[in-house]
Amino acid sequence: MTLTQALQQSAHILSVNGIEDSYIEARMLLGHITKLSPVQIYTRTEQTLSQEQKGSLHELIERRLRREPTAYIVNHREFYGIDFYVDSRVLIPRPETELLVDTAVEFSKNSTYLPNPLLIADIGTGCGAIAISLALNLPRSKIYATDVSYSALKVARLNCEHHKVTRQVTLLQGNLLEPVPEPVDLIVANLPYVRNSELENLSPEITRFEPRTAIDGGKNGLKCIRQLLEQAEEKTSPRGCLLLEIGQNQEKEVVPLIYRYFKKVECKFIPDLNGIKRVVKVTF
């Protein structure tokens, strides 16, 4: 079986079983077992697979048909142009969360009145995607990355070591801001914001495989965000900033919640590419 045949057959199997972007996913699985780049897969059309590779590809296709996310199968996810190791201990980073990083980088670079080094807290770090992206783009910053899950922090440590930011990023286990040892200039948080009633409508890839604690935001989706706001005042420096990722149509509930805890702040919503108000920026 040639690479071209393997790619076409795998894509067809995935497609008829309801897997979206079947051609892209088939290419990722094929690349994983052959260690070839997408360009190599497309250019080495007549290269054949060994029996071992054909068996491995069949096993990966079977896992995908059971709706295991491809990112977990290949232990890889690109985020903000950076490669991250992921497995079922952590939420898979989403493209929309890159807006959170963009906003944090913009705030940090444009706020000349802030101290140097800039102190940042990434709350609910998971695999460390946000913290590491900020570390690489803001090399003079110091970042605390917290997570309540010890197993998630083990994944984050692997990624910190791979990207050589262990001196810049300090991993802390605990509830939200509680383990952060000092006030910070910028708090960045992608917390669970899916409402309980919406969980059953999510794809099997999410409900069967991703950590529920990283998704479930409680009755109105704002349980963790409310807890963070309760802790934020004493952990935020004067003229600091809080950036939160929120779900679709949650802005009307978030604003009064923010003003319940903070009277003199400015709130601004930043839309994603689909026009959804995805990031709320709170400046103190």
SSE layout:
Elements lengths: L2 H14 L5 H13 L3 H6 L7 H15 L4 H5 L2 E3 L2 E3 L13 H13 L8 E5 L5 H9 L4 E6 L2 H13 L6 E5 L10 E6 L14 H6 L13 H10 L3 E10 L5 H11 L4 E6 L5 E7 L1
Parallel strand pairs: 3-4, 3-6, 4-5, 6-7
Antiparallel strand pairs: 1-2, 7-9, 8-9
Helix pairs in contact: 1-2, 1-4, 2-4, 6-7
Give a structural overview.
By secondary structure, this protein is an alpha/beta fold. It folds into 2 domains: 3-66, Helicase, Ruva Protein, domain 3; 88-283, Rossmann fold (3-Layer(aba) Sandwich). Helix content is 40%, strand content 18%. It is built from 11 helices and 9 strands. It has helices at residues 3-16, 22-34, 38-43, 51-65, 70-74, 98-110, 129-137, 150-162, 204-209, 223-232, 251-261, and strands spanning 77-79, 82-84, 119-123, 142-147, 169-173, 184-189, 236-245, 266-271, 277-283. Helix 1 (3-16) packs parallel to helix 4, helix 2 (22-34) crosses helix 4 and helix 6 packs parallel to helix 7 (129-137).
Q: Estimate the global geometry from the Cα principal axes.
A: elongated
Estimated structural class:
alpha/beta
By DSSP, the count of extended strands is 9
Strand order of the largest sheet: 5-4-3-6-7-9-8
Along the chain, the helix and strand elements come as HHHHHEEHEHEHEEHHEHEE
CATH homologous superfamily of the largest domain, by name?
A: Vaccinia Virus protein VP39
The CATH architecture of the largest domain would be 3-Layer(aba) Sandwich
Largest sheet, described in full?
7 strands, mixed
Low-confidence stretches: none
Query: End-to-end distance, in Å?
Result: 61 Å
Overall residue-averaged pLDDT value: 94
Strand portion: 15-25%
CATH topology of the largest domain: Rossmann fold
